[in-house]
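Key idea: predict the complex, not the pieces.
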Amino acid sequence: MKEPGCEDVLMAQMAAVDGEEPGFSTKQFSEHIAACANCQHELKQLQTLDQVLAGHTLSEPRVDLWPAIANRIAGRTNWQPFALIGLLLVIYKLLEMLPARDPGIAFKLVPLVIVVLLFVFIRENPFRINTDLVLER
Amino acid sequence: MDDAEAIKRCQRGDREAFRHLVERYQKRAVAHAVAILFDRDDAEDVVQDAFIDAFKAIGTFDTARTFYPWFYVLLRHRCYKMTARRRPTESLDEALLIVTQRELPDDTRFALENALQSLTREEREIVLLKYFSGLSYDEIATHLQIPRGTVMSRLFYARRRLQGKLAGMLITEKEV
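Result:
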């Protein structure tokens, strides 16, 4: 088996320091470090760095992104219901065009029902007059 | 409500359930985005975009997995897209990135933040996930979608570079 190089040994040693599986046996890298002055020096420096970096956390700022995200999600409209409504209206028109057929008053109310459903779906009241002043950005 | 429940409700089209996920993870996400972008405003923008991406893709999410590592992949993709199209960021005027839980002089803290900023994006990201978010190698591998061996080597070279940048500071620390 190939002898591990300095970098492999240092990587493994740092993994062991981190409490992780180093990938080499402890004996293997301990022997290397004991015999290698460069590795000893670099290992000391890496461990000092470890101490400097320990005891910090990422600063988690106060944010409230939900209102903006909720607006953007609400702005995304599903096209499928609109396509379905369009399809229903086309079918209605085709049925209406059939000759020698009198479907009666109920059939004539179908487009009205579809339009009412559309306004229910988009949650808009067509009779409401919006008097709020909106300043454009 | 736990994450799995919120995600199932989102998958059934409940927008309000998504609020739970946003409110639970937004701070952590902004902190991670600031760590990559070094800009608070850009960080908030990309976090918003990443949450919108998550909302669009939530239907495909496997509820057996945990939410944040999956979301983090979307977030870093957004961060990297943002860094690709903007000019390099100036240094931080004030400490934005880290909170110290022990006595550390301000100049040491700034030196540490500047040294972190001078690392490459990938190096900085892995150092922050390891030290400041306290993730294990396996968790880092999941967050970054890289093999565990790559985590080991990337972390090693990042530490080496950081050690070079902080050479003066490390001597002081050692003497203390």
